[in-house]
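User: Some background: our group keeps a shared notebook of sequences we're curious about, and every so often someone picks one and asks for a predicted structure to add to the entry. Today it's my turn. The entry only has the sequence so far, pasted here. Could you supply the structure so I can complete it?
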Amino acid sequence: MKREKIVELSRFLSYILRHHPEEYGVSLDRYGFTKLKELVKAINKRKRRVREEDIRTIVEESEKKRFEIEGDRIRATYGHSLEVEQVSPEVEPPQVLFHGTSRKALESILRDGLKPMERQYVHLCETEEEAYRVGRRKDRNPVVLKVKAREAFIKGIKFRKYGSVYMAKEVPGKFIENMLGKKRHSY
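Assistant: Of course. Here's the predicted structure to add to the notebook entry:
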């Protein structure tokens, strides 16, 4: 399968499994799982020709581990806007994590902290580069924020991790530092 088809199908799977399963007649259990065969059938009924092997390839080759297959079931591992129970383990985070966002959101984030908005969790990155790439989805010249994750953890903020993504229900502003002006990004 060509790279652009993999990206397109991965985005489509995210749309269904994270946000709008009902649009395709897909039902999720409380952990976000659905039968893989039912998902393939639903996609083929409405969208395009896809095989179970194509979906398995996306799951196996994904660096970010956006999806997981257990037996005959599949789910999105994080990024849900709909309510699902999170099964990723709570972890002690590294000293710092990073969050990429739009310049427009900066003032409210520094004042009110990071909130999940339409999602269940705030997503945090291990590197500035990755946060910058994520932030580019919202702004051509995004802001990268440094999150004092270990300090937040010590003060009671719970973190989860799946793949390379760390998640928290929210991060208060006192644990966030604006990196704007500290370093020129060339990612």
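Suggested note for the entry: The chain has six helices and ten strands. Residues 90-178 form a domain with the ADP-ribosylation fold fold (CATH 3.20.170.30).
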